[in-house]
Design brief:
By secondary structure, the protein is mainly beta. Helices cover 7% and strands 34% of the residues. The chain has two helices and 13 strands. It has a five-stranded antiparallel β-sheet. A hairpin with a 5-residue loop joins strand 7 and strand 8. The chain is elongated and about 65 Å long.
Amino acid sequence: MAEDREGSQVSPDAPRWKHDGVRVIKGDRLDDNTAQTPGMHRQAAVNHARVGAQKIWAGTVSIQPNAKTGAHHHGDLESVIYVVKGRARMRWGERLEFTAEAEPGDFIFVPPFVPHQEINASADEPLECVVIRSDNEAVVVNIPGIAPVEAPEEVYWIDPIHQHP
């Protein structure tokens, strides 16, 4: 063990933590050079290229009022979306036949390979979300040509503990 200036014991690995430890990614320094889907704007904060992440990707998504994204999925990645501002309407399924809404403070889980579409349900407020994915790169598979059903079925997620409101 080495000693610091005050004589305290310091691990020989300590200096590497200066540049390989905690990273703060400023909100105004996000990277637009990430996979995109029509109708939304993704920005990467955490990925392999930026910080050396091995198992996750994190960033932001914004969707303008009354806008919707194209249908897409994220391959074998799991995604978590946290709604920061606005109202998100999610559609999913082979023909986007299911729908659910989320508001600020809500989390949305998207399993691997699920075709989905994000919709800003507000006519006057942008939708802003934080997205986390289970790999270090953003996988986006845009699906052109899905003919959405006219009236999707509303779905409430219910687990053994929580009942429908």
